[in-house]
C-alpha cells in the first residue's frame, strides 16, 4: 500500500500589498501518515483542502516541513513523485489538452512507449478498459460532462500510477454520472485520496479528514467525520 507522509508541512503565501513582506498561513502545520486505500477530505471552500491535495504530488511545495510519497520527497524527487501520483482536477477540460481523448491518452503514454504504433495500441487498451473507445475520436468539447470526467481519468490512469488524487471530481456531474464515477473508483487498484463536497461520497472512504481554516480538525471514521463537519458548518 502506498504511504504518504507529511511532517510539519506548512504553506504560506504573501499578504497582498504588505510593505514588510508579511505572509499568512493557508495550511498547516500538518503531520499525517496516509496509508489507507481510500481517503476522503472535506471542508468549506477556502479551508485549505485543495492545497493539501496539491502537496501530495508537488503541485504545491511546502513552505516548511516535508511531504513524501513512498519515501520520495515531493520537492527533491518531484519528477519521480509525479510519475507515481496522478492528479485529476475538478474541471476535466483543463486536463484534456488535445483535440480528442485518444490523442490525450497517447500523449500521456509518450514516456512509456517511444514508438507511435506502440502508443496507439496501448491507448486503445486503456480506452477499452474504461469503456471509452467509442468516444475516443470525438472532440473533447462534444463530450458530456460525465464523459469528459471519465476521459480525463483514463488519461491520468493510463500510466498506472500508484496514487490517484482527485479534487472535487463530482462537482460538475449529475447523479447518474456521479454514480458511474463512484463505481469506477471502487474498482481501481490504486490508492485514492479525494476532496469532495459530496458527503455521501466522502462517507464511503476508509478514512476521512476534515479541514478547517488550514488545519486538520478531524481524522478518522468517515461517518463520524461527516457528522463533525456538519456540526462545524451548522454552527452560527
UniProtKB/TrEMBL annotation:
Is ATP-binding one of the keywords UniProt gives this record?
yes
- Residue ranges occupied by any ABC transporter domain in the UniProt entry: 4-235
Q: What is this protein called?
A: ABC transporter ATP-binding protein
Protein keywords? ATP-binding, Cell membrane, Membrane, Nucleotide-binding, Translocase, Transport
* Subcellular locations according to the entry: Cell membrane
Organism domain of life: Bacteria
Q: Which GO terms describe its molecular function?
A: ATP binding
The answer on whether this UniProt entry bears the keyword Electron transport reads no
| Taxon lineage | Bacteria, Bacillati, Actinomycetota, Actinomycetes, Micrococcales
Topology of the protein relative to the lipid bilayer: Peripheral membrane protein
State the organism named in the record: Terrabacter carboxydivorans
InterPro entries in the record, alphabetically?
AAA+_ATPase, ABC_transporter-like_ATP-bd, ABC_transporter-like_CS, ABC_transpr_CbiO/EcfA_su, ECF_ABC_transporter_ATP-bd, P-loop_NTPase
Q: Which CDD domains match?
A: ABC_cobalt_CbiO_domain1
Describe the family membership recorded for this protein in Swiss-Prot or TrEMBL: Belongs to the ABC transporter superfamily.
Amino acid at each position: 500500500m502506498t504511504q504518504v507522509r507529511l511532517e510539519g508541512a506548512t504553506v504560506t503565501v504573501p499578504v497582498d500589498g504588505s510593505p514588510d513582506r508579511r505572509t499568512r498561513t493557508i495550511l498547516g502545520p500538518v503531520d499525517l501518515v496516509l496509508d489507507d486505500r481510500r481517503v476522503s477530505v472535506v471542508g468549506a471552500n477556502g479551508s485549505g483542502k485543495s492545497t493539501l491535495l496539491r502537496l501530495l504530488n508537488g503541485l504545491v511545495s511546502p513552505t516548511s516541513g516535508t511531504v513524501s510519497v513512498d519515501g520520495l520527497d515531493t520537492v527533491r524527487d518531484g519528477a519521480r513523485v509525479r510519475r507515481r501520483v496522478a492528479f485529476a482536477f475538478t474541471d476535466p477540460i483543463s486536463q484534456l489538452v488535445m483535440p480528442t481523448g485518444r490523442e490525450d491518452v497517447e500523449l500521456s503514454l509518450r514516456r512509456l512507449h517511444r514508438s507511435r504504433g506502440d502508443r496507439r495500441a496501448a491507448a486503445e487498451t486503456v480506452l477499452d478498459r474504461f469503456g471509452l473507445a467509442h468516444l475516443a475520436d470525438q472532440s473533447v468539447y462534444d463530450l458530456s460532462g460525465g464523459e469528459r470526467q471519465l476521459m480525463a481519468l483514463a488519461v491520468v490512469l493510463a500510466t498506472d500510477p500508484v496514487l490517484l488524487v482527485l479534487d472535487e471530481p463530482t462537482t460538475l456531474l449529475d447523479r447518474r454520472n456521479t454514480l458511474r464515477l463512484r463505481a469506477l473508483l471502487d474498482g481501481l487498484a490504486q490508492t485514492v485520496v479525494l476532496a469532495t463536497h459530496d458527503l455521501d461520497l466522502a462517507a464511503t472512504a476508509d478514512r476521512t479528514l476534515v479541514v478547517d481554516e488550514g488545519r486538520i480538525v478531524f481524522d478518522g471514521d468517515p461517518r463520524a467525520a461527516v457528522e463533525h463537519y456538519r456540526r462545524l458548518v451548522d454552527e452560527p
